[in-house]
Amino acid sequence: MRRSLAAISRIFAVIFALMLFGQGSQAHFQMLYTPDLAPVRGQATHLVMPFSHPVHGGPNMDINKPEAFYMLSQRGRAAQRKKVDLMSYLTPVTWSSSINSSAAFEAKLPRKLTRSLGDYVFVLQPSPYYEAEEDKYIQQYTKTVMNVGAVPGNWADPADLPVEIIPLDKPYANWRGGVFRGVVTAGGKPVPYAALEIEYINYRVDMKLPGFVGAAAVQLPQDSFGTMGIKTNAVGEFVIGLPRAGWWGICALDLVPGSLHKGKPLSVDAVLWLQAREMN
Question: What are the extents of the domains in the chain?
Answer without folding.
Answer: 27-277
